[in-house]
Design brief:
Elements (H helix, E strand, L loop, with lengths): L30 H28 L31 E18 L9 E17 L8 E4 L4 E6 L3 E2 L3 E2 L5 E7 L1 H7 L5 H20 L3 H19 L4 E6 L3
Parallel strand pairs: 4-8
Antiparallel strand pairs: 1-2, 2-5, 2-6, 2-7, 3-4
Length: about 240
């Protein structure tokens, strides 16, 4: 039954909360979201700085910076030591470039090749010079007649030098080694074997140059050079002869 509003009754109170009940926990701010925002902010700032540096570098505003991880080569070679000097009195009349294929094999009798064997296929390229040595000319080698404007020259025969191997154009095509040979090479240097291949290449090239017609070419070039030289000096007849070796 409803009561009249004029009735004065004490106001009801809410029951007190017991002390032993836990209080309502206040939620902490989301820390993960804050850390993520900070990382994104610094990432954006770093990207902007890098882009600005590349842009200024492309406009040559900033100096260039070397790669700190780039490969570097340090040259600790000693100064060049002069060992000797000599005066040359020879005329290089011709030279020839030759190429030789050296197929060299070392093995053992009654031993299979897969165990002890060494075979190297080497392509050697070298140059051989043909020259005339003027230092050995005698007083009678030059006969000059100024009245008739004639000159007679008697020269020694052209000489052939040793082949000079061009290492930039020489290379190893193939090299086969047996099992024990490969193990032995791991504990000692093969400089002597390389030198042997180089020497054999030079020897073959030098021998090939002797039968290549390089000698006759040197004679012709020497004769044409001397005839042109003395003709310009006013001589009308120039005779060049070579002695027999």
């Amino acid at each position: 039954m409803a009561q009249s509003p004029d009735v004065d009754e004490p106001t009801r109170e809410y029951p007190a909360v017991p002390d032993d009940e836990p209080s309502a926990a206040v939620p902490d701010p989301p820390r993960r979201s804050i850390v993520a925002r900070v990382l994104i902010f610094f990432g954006v700032v770093f990207a902007v700085i890098v882009a600005a540096c590349f842009g200024l570098r492309s406009l040559n505003v900033l100096p260039s910076f070397d790669n700190p991880f780039d490969k570097q080569t340090t040259d600790r070679s000693q100064p060049v030591l002069l060992q000797s000097m000599r005066d040359l009195s020879r005329y290089v009349a011709a030279d020839g470039t030759f190429q030789v294929i050296v197929d060299l094999q070392d093995d053992r009798k009654y031993v299979p090749d897969w165990l002890i064997n060494r075979r190297i296929l080497f392509v050697g390229s070298g140059t051989v010079e043909e020259y005339v040595d003027f230092s050995s000319l005698s007083d009678k080698a030059l006969q000059v007649d100024n009245d008739k404007k004639t000159i007679k020259l008697t020269l020694p025969p052209p000489q052939q030098g040793d082949a000079a191997l061009d290492l930039q154009k020489s290379y190893v095509v193939e090299e086969d080694r047996g099992l024990l040979t490969s193990i032995g090479d791991a504990f000692k240097s093969d400089t002597d074997k390389q030198q042997r291949v180089y020497q054999l290449s030079q020897q073959r090239i030098t021998e090939a140059a002797r039968s290549s017609g390089l000698d006759q070419r040197a004679r012709d070039n020497t004769q044409h050079m001397l005839e042109s030289l003395f003709t310009r000096l006013g001589y009308t007849s120039v005779t060049v002869t070579f002695t027999t070796p």
